[in-house]
Amino acid sequence: MNKNELKKILKPLIKECIREVIFEEGALSSVVSEVVKGMGQPLVEARPPTTKKQVARYETDEEAKLRLDERKAKMMEAIGTDAYNGINLFEGTTPAPAASNNAHSPLDNTDPRDPGVDISSIMGKSSAIWSKMVGK
Q: Is 46 helix (H, G, I), strand (E, B) or coil?
């Protein structure tokens, strides 16, 4: 008997024995339960906590400006008005944009107050080109 003939005879027998041990004797269920025990705590979906910045976006522009001015005044008091000869360090400053968690966004690290590029004149100035492209 050569190697291939022996393989043809033994392979189905070994498959059947393994299947019997795994399913009928419960080896698979014990392996799964051990894996689950080893994982520790169950996986739970967690939502990030709501921050003050997320709540603050519902306030009006005037309220936001008042809060910002109050904050700047408190900072100047903490520094001391005489520390820089009475110069307001925060005059003309705006807050830095909040860091985004979405690195795949094309507008990541872009100031939300940025007006962007005006594209309103594209159709007006080149209407002849657009009408040729459309086929009119």
A: coil
